[in-house]
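Newbie here. two chains, one complex. Structure please?
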Amino acid sequence: MTRDQLFEQIRKKHSFLCVGLDTEADRLPEHLNHGEYPLFEFNRQIIDATHSLAIAYKPNVAFYECAGTPGWKQLELTVAYIRDRYPDILVIADAKRGDIGNTTRKYAETFFRHMSCDAVTVAPYMGSDSVLPFLEYPGKWVILLALTSNQGADDFQLLHINRGQRLFEIILEKSSSWGSPDNMMYVVGATRASMLVKVREIIPDHFLLIPGIGAQGGDLREVADYGLNSRCGLIVNSSRAIIYADSTKRFAEAARARAGEVQREMEGILRDKGLGTISSVF
Amino acid sequence: MTRDQLFEQIRKKHSFLCVGLDTEADRLPEHLNHGEYPLFEFNRQIIDATHSLAIAYKPNVAFYECAGTPGWKQLELTVAYIRDRYPDILVIADAKRGDIGNTTRKYAETFFRHMSCDAVTVAPYMGSDSVLPFLEYPGKWVILLALTSNQGADDFQLLHINRGQRLFEIILEKSSSWGSPDNMMYVVGATRASMLVKVREIIPDHFLLIPGIGAQGGDLREVADYGLNSRCGLIVNSSRAIIYADSTKRFAEAARARAGEVQREMEGILRDKGLGTISSVF
C-alpha cells in the first residue's frame, strides 16, 4: 500500500484509527469458545463491525503465538480475511522483530509474502540489517520503534548521547536514511505527546504509529496537536478499549460504538486542522 | 535448568557448544523433502547425531514462522523432541522478542509454558518490562542482546553515552539488576572478542551466548581467552557450519563430525584453563 493510498483512506473515512487485535483466548465472549477458530471468529466480527471506521488493523503476534499452532493459523486467517474483504485497509503485523540480515529476510517472507501484511513493527537495536531486507518489498512498510509508551521506555530510549541528543532521536535520524516516508513509519508512544515536537523536527513527513490511546491513557487531541502533518501523518491505535468494550454477544456492536466515538473525535480534529475535505489537501 | 545443571553438562561433555537450528526448507537434503514434517525430520537427525557434543540447541524462530502454520508446528515438535529425549540439554528459542509487559507475558507463556524452552533471546530497547515477565518463571532464562555480531550492531550499540560508556555497557549494567546470573545471560558477538574484556568487567559471572563462530567468522580461542570465567560462563553457537556441513543423505553424520571438531577444540580450551576435570572446579 502506498502513502497516497493510505492518505486516500484517511480522507474517505475521516479517520486515522488503527484497531489493535490483541485477541486473547481467555477474554473472548463465552459463546465463541466452542468453535474451531474462536480467535479468528472474534476478529472477523470485530473487523466486519469496524472496517468503515478504521484505516488499519494491527494483530499483536504474541497473542496468537501464545495459542500455539492453532493460534498461528488464526493469525493467518485474520490477515487473509482482511486482505480478501477489505483490501484497502492497512494490515500491520505487530511483531517487533529485529535480527541479523539472513534472519530478517525470513521475517520479511513470513509477514509480507506468506501472510500479505502491509507492514511490520521492527526493533532498532540491531541496526540497519534488521530493517533493510523488509524494504526490498515494494509497497510494504517497516514501522520502527522510536519511543514507546511503556514504563521501560525510560531505561534506554531517553539516554543522552554525546552530542546531547537522546537515543530515540539518533535512531530517528540515522534510520530515516535507510528508507523514506514511503516505506518507513515510526512507533511513538502517545503518553509522550510533547516529545512529538522533537520527533517532527527530525522526521516531518513520516507516518507515526501511535499506541497508547485508550487502555494506556494517551490523549488524542494532544497527539494531534503535535503530531499531525499536511497529509495527516498519524495512525493512532486503540486495542483493548475497542475490542473488549463488551464481553457479551453484543461485543462487536459495542466495539463499533467505541470505534465510532474515536472516529468522530478524529473527524473533528481533521476538520479543525483543515484536513477534513478533499479540496483542502490537494 | 539451573546454572549448576548447565555447568554440570559442560563438565560432562567437555563442551560449551550450542547448535543453532536455522533450518531452511530450501536447504534440506533432497530425500527429506517428501515427508509431512521435513524441517522436524532434519532437526531430529541433527539432534540425534550431535546431542553428546552439544549442551544447547537454539532454534531460530524466524525460520519456522517463515513456513507458516506447518513451520510453527515443526518448531513445537523440535522443542518437544529435545525435551523428551535429551532433557539435560538447554533449549533456547532464538526469538529476539521485546514488547510491553502484557505482551511479554504472552511471549513468556508461548516459549516457557506452551513449548517448554529453557531460554529465550530478548531485545533490550523497550526496557525492563520487556524482560521482567520472563523472569517470573523459575528455572527459565532471558538471554538479552548486548553486543551483536552483525554489521548493523555498529549503528547504535556502540554509541557513547554521557558518562563515556557505550550503549551496550549501559544496557549490561542496568539490566543485570533486573535478574541475576541465575536467570539472565547475554548475547555478545564473537566477532568482537576484544570487547569481551569490557563485558567481563561489568558482568563477571553471567553466561554469555556467543553467536558468530563459523559462518560469521569468530575465533573460538580468542573468545575463550577473554570470555571464560571460573564456571565456563560461555555458550558458543554454531549454526550453518554444522547443520549444513553436507547436503546429502549423510548430512547428520557430517554435522556430527563438524560438531566433534568444535567440541574437541573446546575440550582443549577447558583443559588449558583448568576447567577440564571435575576435581579442578569443585
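Moderator note: The domain at 3-281 of chain A is CATH 3.20.20.70 (TIM Barrel). Chain A has a mean pLDDT of 93. Thread marked as resolved.
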